[in-house]
UniProtKB/TrEMBL annotation:
Chief place where the protein resides: periplasm
Annotated protein name in UniProt: Aliphatic sulfonate ABC transporter substrate-binding protein
One cellular component (GO) term of this entry: periplasmic space
Solute-binding protein family 3/N-terminal domain span: 54-267
Superkingdom of source: Bacteria
Alphabetic keyword roster: Signal, Transport
Gene3D superfamilies registered for this protein in UniProt: Periplasmic binding protein-like II (3.40.190.10)
InterPro entries: ABC_SsuA_sub-bd, Solute-binding_3/MltF_N, SsuA/THI5
Residues annotated as signal peptide: 1-32
SUPFAM superfamilies: Periplasmic binding protein-like II (SSF53850)
């Protein structure tokens, strides 16, 4: 026979045991609903592009703005000199790059359409007046229509490519009416001077330098053809797992823009030194560029471009362009101030 006190203790222990079993059974469900935050990376990798005259990036590097910000969390920040858009996109796809600075918008569109999971989180710059179709200064080619049957070099899959297609369409020509060679702008500048090609499309500061040297003359500006837009892109998986780091990255970029505006003489001096240019040349080119982060107009620009590129056969006809652009552009990381 149990004594009353012993019975009470027994019942209490049994109740506690049953409660523990019940709670243990509920625990997995509760744990499944809670997602632990991702560990912060040890290194953040970003592309560094100083040209055309990318003042914000130059200022940020010179003043170590990103390095100082992320070192607060023990994160190393690394710049990588990767200028070619195709190489930047390959690095993003390979996860050896987290952020792509000053990526031209056409490359971003085509990359997304081909399955490269990236997000545009900020505008970087606009400079349609700083891009031009150029020819040899011998007077043989006076209009865009004169390019028929000629050899022209530029980087395919970029905004320069779209500009050419649009310029040709104004005179009822296509790229099939001429010989198109895939070549970076620096190489194309040398090629046209040597007489190996008849025309190319150059961005600043190569454009002004080539004109000043007498090697080329302008035939058609990009103004009215393309927005001349560059953007900041990030790997989609990085943005998903590290949203706060993306926001902080953009806050630092904004700080570099703000500092440049408040200390313009010093910022332009840094730019001249980095790009090995005369300060007078930098000052004359700077007004051609607009450095802003706003994404309000970007979706419309990208959709307009994507529609044109799809019509030209550069994007598969089954791609839903509205969905593509909506998934590509994400303004939620922009600074609110």
């Amino acid at each position: 026979m149990f004594r009353p006190k012993v019975l009470s203790i027994f019942c209490l222990n049994a109740f506690i045991l049953l409660g523990a079993i019940f709670l243990a059974g509920c625990a997995p469900t509760q744990k499944a609903d809670t997602q632990a935050p991702a560990d912060k990376p040890k290194i953040i990798n970003a592309s560094y592009v100083s040209r055309p005259i990318n003042v914000p990036s130059i200022v940020a590097q010179e003043r170590k703005l990103f390095e100082n910000e992320f070192s607060k969390d023990g994160i190393e920040f690394k710049w990588h000199n990767i200028t070619a858009p195709s190489n930047q996109l390959e690095a993003l796809a390979a996860k050896s790059l987290d952020f792509s600075n000053s990526l031209n918008y056409v490359s971003a569109i085509l990359a997304k359409a081909n399955g490269n999971e990236i997000k545009i989180v900020s505008s970087y710059s606009r400079f349609p007046k700083g891009i031009s179709l150029v020819v040899k200064p011998d007077g043989a080619l006076k209009t865009v229509a004169d390019l028929k049957g000629k050899k022209i070099a530029l980087q395919k899959g970029t905004m320069l490519h779209e500009m050419l297609i649009r310029a040709l369409s104004e005179v009822n020509l296509t790229t099939q009416d001429l010989e198109l060679v895939d070549m970076d702008s620096t190489t194309a500048t040398a090629a046209i001077a040597a007489g190996h090609i008849d025309a190319t499309i150059l961005p600043e500061p190569l454009l002004s330098q080539a004109i000043a040297s007498g090697r080329v003359q302008k035939l058609r500006s990009a103004e009215g053809l393309i927005p001349g837009l560059t953007v900041i892109a990030v790997r989609s998986d990085f943005a998903k797992t590290q949203p706060e780091l993306v926001r902080r990255y953009l806050q630092v970029h904004k700080a570099s823009i703000d500092w440049s505006q408040a200390n313009l003489e010093e910022a332009l001096g840094m730019t001249a030194k980095q790009n090995q240019m005369d300060i007078k040349g930098v000052k004359s080119l700077f007004p051609v560029f607009t450095f802003e982060m706003n994404l309000n107009q970007v979706k419309n620009d990208l959709l307009n471009s994507a529609t044109f590129l799809q019509k030209e056969g550069m994007i598969h006809p089954n791609v839903d362009l509205a969905k593509l652009v909506d998934e590509l552009v994400d303004p939620s990381y922009l600074p609110t101030e």
